[in-house]
């Protein structure tokens, strides 16, 4: 791991694991707002995608709530924290970094594979709408240990091209691995777990293969995946924002806040 040169590390591996960059007091405030949003309390009056009425019971499967930063000011503060934007710019060499979608993720304890995320490349989901330099900052809110089902990255897979062989929503990681390896032409497969303290952040390229297994720890694994773009990205010709699902219009400062500008 080349911690002294995050950009070189990101280019080589397709991901970079940073130490804690978000202050502990903000993480603590965000943690309580996650429970509020999960329960359906929307501070700004704007509901997130995928949780219209809120939930009464603790989750038993992976919870993925999109764009909670539009619903809650503390979560917006996390997404726009200057340390995050600065590091994102350093990793990519960008002049401009903007968030265009945010996933709030709760992986419940209990070891069930309903908490797993299947191997995939993020670009599989964005490709119909977006092109260019896109990547993700994944922020740990809880302590993400080897037992809690951390994200795992396949180093170098950002160079395999867009394979369209993954599936975020499948728990059959072995079958997906086989399919992806086959489509990649039999590339060597190695996995690195992104173990992170609360406030720690990992960054991954749009084509890096990643997934995660069940949470075998005692507490929920809680995080945000903040999807980012640089000035070298764009909405595809002919695509309209109203057809872009959970992706926020780049011209909407609430949905797509600017995280860094040179
Ligand atoms: O949280 C996970 O385990 C997977 C998240 C993910 O797929 C992403 O951040 O792109």
Question: Which helices and strands occur, and which strands form pairs?
Answer:
Elements: H1 6-13, E1 15-20, H2 24-38, E2 63-66, H3 73-79, H4 82-92, E3 96-107, E4 117-120, H5 123-126, E5 130-140, E6 151-153, H6 173-183, E7 192-193, E8 200-205, E9 210-212, E10 221-235, E11 258-261
Helix pairs in contact: 2-3
The chain binds 2-oxoglutaric acid.
- How can the largest sheet be summarized? 7 strands, antiparallel
Query: What would you give as the CATH superfamily?
Result: q2cbj1_9rhob like domain
Q: In CATH terms, what is the architecture?
A: Sandwich
Mean pLDDT: 96
Structural class: alpha+beta
Instruction: Assign an overall shape.
Output: globular
**N/C terminus separation:** 27 Å
Query: How many H/I helices?
Result: 6
Rounded radius of gyration (Å): 17 Å
Low-confidence stretches: none
Element string (H = helix, E = strand): HEHEHHEEHEEHEEEEE
* Oligomeric state of the chains in view: single chain
Q: What is the total number of structural domains?
A: 1
What is the CATH class designation? Mainly Beta
Bound molecules: 2-oxoglutaric acid
Query: Helicity level, as a percent range?
Result: 10-25%
Number of strands: 11
Strand content: 25-35%
CATH fold assignment = Jelly Rolls
Q: What can you tell me about this protein's structure?
A:
The structure is a single chain. With 262 residues, the chain is α+β, with helices and mostly antiparallel strands. It has a single domain, classed as Jelly Rolls (Sandwich). 21% of the residues lie in helices and 27% in strands. It contains 6 helices and 11 strands. The chain has helices at residues 6-13, 24-38, 73-79, 82-92, 123-126, 173-183; strands at 15-20, 63-66, 96-107, 117-120, 130-140, 151-153, 192-193, 200-205, 210-212, 221-235, 258-261. Strands 1, 2, 3, 5, 8, 10 and 11 form a 7-stranded antiparallel beta sheet that branches. A 4-stranded antiparallel beta sheet has the order 4-9-6-7, covered by helices on one side. The longest helix has 15 residues, at 24-38. The radius of gyration is 17 Å and the shape is globular. 2-oxoglutaric acid binds next to β5, β9 and β10.
